[in-house]
Write a structure and sequence with these properties.
Elements lengths: L9 E12 L2 E12 L3 E5 L6 H8 L7 E6 L2 E2 L4 H7 E4 L11 H11 L8 H8 L15 H13 L5 E5 L7 H16 L3 E6 L10 E6 L2 E6 L1 H6 L4 E6 L3 H9 L4 E7 L2 E6 L5 H10 L6 E4 L4 H11 L2
Parallel strand pairs: 3-8, 3-9, 6-7, 7-8
Antiparallel strand pairs: 1-2, 1-4, 4-5, 9-10, 11-13, 11-14, 12-13
Helix pairs in contact: 3-5, 4-5
Length: about 300
């Protein structure tokens, strides 16, 4: 359910979008609204429809049916105008590998009939971090520096809406954190940001998130509200035999679900089930060093539960 505030005029408005690739339906009657100044996250695994949606909204692809507007402009009829007011950072680094950092930025400024100097205030915090390498070819940059250059190029014409398709995939944790700090500063300047990511931990940094699977939004709300709506009893379990723990957990009738989360397993259980009962069961199965404790759900736990409920 989308809990959009209907008192605001949406800057992105999608109604019943559909897109198929042969027999594969990438988007299924997708409808949602994004408002001015939001960081709106589209969270889901690879193949869930995120990139297809972004390509439609950035006028690079036509939907099979449905409508979409960006800042009141139709993505089909007004595609030229939309391209002048949006910034787009695709998942794959798409700048000119043989041009230097400085040459790439100048090129994109020229394409949009502006200069680096005119909108430098927008990219100053980002560009300062790569300015030392301004004479280096883009293809020779590290992943984090490529990310900062791509964002600078997407911002140099002062877009109204910024579309970021999995911008932190393959980037180290420090660069990921720096990148999100930059997004918060851009939001403070009034730029609306749509960001897709497979990283569930990034969801909590968004104002609202849409959990997407198989081309459909399973839930749209603030991260806090989505977590608050989690209704299962959730435990974390570890033992000395982690490699076979998942199989053992899944065969107990009182355990509803069990999934790997880093170096532990998260399980949902029946209300009457107790720690002692689980510990006894695992001991009988040959486990020792057993650790069981109740935990608060994350967005990833909520996503998994929605996946199970919609399965």
């Amino acid at each position: 359910m989308d809990t959009t505030n209907n008192c605001q005029l949406p800057i992105v408005n999608c109604q019943l979008l559909n897109k198929s690739y042969g027999a594969i339906q990438a988007l299924k009657d997708l409808s949602f609204k994004v408002h001015q100044g939001e960081i709106y996250g589209i969270i889901g695994p690879d193949g869930s429809g995120k990139t297809t949606l972004f390509r439609i909204l950035t006028t690079l692809m036509l939907a099979d049916s449905g409508t979409a507007t960006v800042d009141g402009l139709d993505v089909v009829k007004d595609y030229k105008k939309i391209r002048n007011i949006i910034g787009y950072m695709p998942g794959k680094f798409s700048l000119y590998q043989d041009l230097t950092v400085e040459e790439n930025l100048k090129f994109f400024a020229t394409v949009f009939h502006t200069t680096i100097e005119e909108n430098y205030y927008l990219i100053e915090d980002i560009y300062k971090q790569i300015e030392t390498f301004k004479k280096r070819r883009a293809g020779k940059l590290s992943g984090g520096m490529k990310q900062k250059l791509a964002l600078s190029c997407a911002l140099i014409h002062k877009p109204t809406v910024l579309f970021l398709d999995e911008p932190t995939t393959g980037v180290d944790p420090v660069s990921r954190k720096e990148f999100w700090n930059m997004l918060m500063k851009l939001k403070a300047q009034g730029i609306t940001i749509l960001v897709s990511t497979p990283y569930m931990d990034e969801a909590t940094l968004c104002d609202r998130i849409a959990l997407i699977l198989n081309g459909e939004f399973m839930q749209v709300d603030t991260p806090k509200n989505i977590i608050a709506g989690y209704s299962e009893m959730l435990w974390s379990v570890q033992t000395n035999h982690m490699y076979r723990l998942l199989k053992d957990l899944r065969k107990h009738p009182s355990i509803k679900s069990a999934f790997s989360f880093g170096d532990t397993f998260h399980i949902t259980v029946s209300e009457q089930f107790s720690f002692d009962e689980l510990e006894m069961f695992l001991t009988d199965e040959g486990h020792s060093d057993i650790e069981i404790y109740a935990i608060q759900p994350s967005v990833e736990d909520c996503f998994i539960q929605l996946t199970i409920n919609n399965g």
